[in-house]
Amino acid sequence: xxxxxxxxxxxxxxxxxxxxxxxxxxxxxxxxxxxxxxxxxxxxxxxxxxxxxxxxxxxxxxxxxxxxxxxxxxxxxxxxxxxxxxxxxxxxxxxxxxxxxxxxxxxxxxxxxxxx
Amino acid sequence: xxxxxxxxxxxxxxxxxxxxxxxxxxxxxxxxxxxxxxxxxxxxxxxxxxxxxxxxxxxxxxxxxxxxxxxxxxxxxxxxxxxxxxxxxxxxxxxxxxxxxxxxxxxxxxxxx
Lengths: 116, 113
What we know:
Chain A is mainly β. Chain A has a single domain, classed as Sandwich (Immunoglobulin-like). Chain A contains no helices and 12 strands. Chain A has strands at residues 3-5, 10-14, 19-21, 24-26, 33-39, 46-52, 60-61, 64-69, 74-79, 88-98, 101-106, 110-115. In chain A, strands 2, 5, 6, 10, 11 and 12 form a 6-stranded mixed β-sheet that branches. A 4-stranded antiparallel β-sheet of chain A has the order 3-9-8-7, with no helix packed on it. In chain A, a hairpin with a 4-residue loop joins strand 8 (64-69) and strand 9 (74-79). Chain B is mostly beta strands. Helix content of chain B is 0%, strand content 57%. Chain B contains no helices and 11 strands. The chains are: A mainly beta, B mainly beta. Chain A binds chain B through residues 33, 35, 37, 42-47, 50, 52, 91, 95, 97, 102, 104, 106-109, and chain B through 41-46, 49, 57, 88, 90, 92, 97-99, 101-107, 109.
């Protein structure tokens, strides 16, 4: 069975600095997708970035980038130039689909605090 | 552009009362629809998903049910609420499975008293 682990319940970073949130997963599949979602205090879940497992190149979206290590089953999120608006819960998610089998597994989340 | 509407935003219901949460999507056709529950400080738990009208897959046996009477309408229901049904419920849609990400509604905070 697939699992997703976010080992950091809470992280804090000084505004304008860089922070990395860790995520590891366990699967025997070779073709899957990985996502980072952000949930600010407003509670709306927002997609931050996604990565296809077959792509070796790490995904990047503006200040957000991932370090995808497929062999190590690691998918960390790096936030550069942290801003106050980045404060939120961050969830890592693993998606596997085959035929009608759909599995989207979520980590427990990491609370990111931005210090002004 | 696509939008998703979920209501109500908050709801307080007594134990044993019925529940109906509604979710509608605009701007797309034949989306996959999902209901998630999020316990305080926890990740998301998939409750139901639907790939088409009348097609509902249940992930967790529970006191809840889901229906999809129209292509872009997804309803979460219960005949008799339990205290353990309290939580934050999120509706989401995606275009098929695979690389399509989930797009979430604003959620409903349900408190069962």
